[in-house]
Fold these 2 entries.
Entry 1:
Amino acid sequence: MAGFGPPPKAQGQRRNPNPILGGKVRRIDASGHAEKLPKWPLAKPSKRELELWARLWKTPVSVAWESLGWTDAVARYARLLAVAERPKAPGFVLIEVRQLEDRLGLSPMALLRLRWEIVEEDRPYADQSNVLDVRGRLKAVE
């Protein structure tokens, strides 16, 4: 995609050790989703739009959308996706769908750009930062 460049490298692989964007990453629980299904904000939804709307708000990133107040953008995405699913959908609709997917964090690359990370909260060893490094103590024993 033009204008964005490659995704950021991991902190240990970067030449410049200064953290990207202050090192702030939004961690989103993989098992979570928005508290409740928001009311459809646009005019007269179709049945398919409401199905997509409900499915989108069950995704983990919906927690971020809810806190940011992005209901209108998610509704536009659902509306355009319903149009894009039709036979012979106009090309510009497919482009808009892809761009909204990027803005809403609905692909791995979009999550990187938004600095969002979906994490498994129930995995106790997912974060290794609190694990003691015993190599130094083992060398002292020898």
Entry 2:
Amino acid sequence: MIEKHITRRWVEERLDVLHPTHVAAIVRLLTEIRTLFDGDLDAMIILAATSITLQGDGWLDLLFDEEPLTGENTPTNTQSIAQLTGIPRETVRRKLCWLEGKGWVVRDAKGNWMPTMAAASDLRAGSDATVTYLVRVLNAAAKAG
């Protein structure tokens, strides 16, 4: 059973089991995501940053059944994304335009960006890969006790 509060020490004491599993799983996850983003992992990070403020219930429905998330969404602007990610503002702006062209983000009248339902639908394989990653790492954690 995984402890309720996993600490850094708990992880460090189990790195012999956790690290190899994590590395193998993250390579698979990033490879899948890289394909979905035409090789542009910065664009993936930027899209993820537009989603970081999405809070509420219904992630399973949002990512796999294309149902809107019920809860709060605080849109974020280009500068905030640049600060959060460390990606230069102009690069963030260009990649947001690319994501907008794919229909994966929209910009409101105040200049804030939000992910769209099309992103959840088009990137479903990435959501599947993320769940697989989590399953592998959490199973390794359970095994490590």
